[in-house]
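Schema walk-through. Below, the input block comes first and the output block second. Nothing else is stored per chain. Lengths vary across the set, and this one has 375 residues.
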Amino acid sequence: MKNFNAGVYISQGSYKSFQPTLLNRKWVIDDMPVIALLSKADRNLGRLDMYSEYVDIDLFIQMHIAKEATQSSKIEGTQTNMEEAFLSKADVKAEKRDDWVEVQNYISAINETVNRLHALPFSTRLIKMAHRILLRSVRGQHKQPGDFRKSQNWIGGASLSDAVFIPPVHTEIANLMSDIEYFANAQDDNIPDLIKIALIHYQFETIHPFSDGNGRTGRLLITLYLVYKGILKRPILYLSDFFERHRMLYYDNLTRVRTHNDMVQWLKFFLTGIVETSQKGIETLDAIMQLKNSLEKQIDQMGKRSANARILTDYLYKKPVISATDAIRLINKTPQTAYNLIARLESEAILKEVTGAQRNKIYSFIPYIKIFETL
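--- output ---
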């Protein structure tokens, strides 16, 4: 790493683009703090992955994806909270519907690409598929979704003349992305997988291969790669929350690689994110199990309403918002019985009405959502 050279600036006439060094080269990690962080990250990821064996992870995984989606989109300026992510489009305020669609696309992209890993390797084809889903019917939808850009882009500034960073020219993208694909799937290079995905994420953001949506796609690839390599059985680790909370450090560390050839600092930042996010994931799952045990005791005290309350709370762990209409359908009882049950759950601080409307009310599973918002 001491002799690492990030790349060179190449004159394109009126501006200079950055041409990154290919990933397929000999990597020697001789920095002990990086090695120590790598070991800690591996341990914490192993502990997090253990939960997919011992808890009913399907109850929680959509919440993790929804949090990742809202945090990843927040980095791009989208403002949708976790409750809104689970509403139907008709229930979202008109001015927030575009943001809502972006979050839904992120959820779809995670689910669809993870499922495709059974048939496809981690590849350019898979990356293009993720990008196509992310830009479906949202801003950027007219910027070649699923296709690499065919013109020069830039980061920061109003134009090429005052850009903060100018990625490589579009004619180099196919070769650079093929290099990522080969590097990701190489079996004989002895590079730890967490180091690989740190390098891949940096390289992807440096190439900026699409006309729009590079940030969302690059963050999604981290989780996708961890599942692909079998480090995680299920997609339950997401770094967007860490990147959002340390946004300036995230951008500064990516930039420092290019300006100072300092890949070591980027690896430290990335691995720290893996450690902290894994630990938060473990705390979240612990808190959810404690909540389930606590709610079971509360529900047991509800007498004849206990059975119906259990049906609703089981549903709420998968989708933490519910309408009165949904409640009636789920418990298959009269509307009045459902309204009385909702009122009881409100009095127990399990549900809270979030629309303020007189009709078509929607209720949020408050204690469950708070776990994800605070941890």
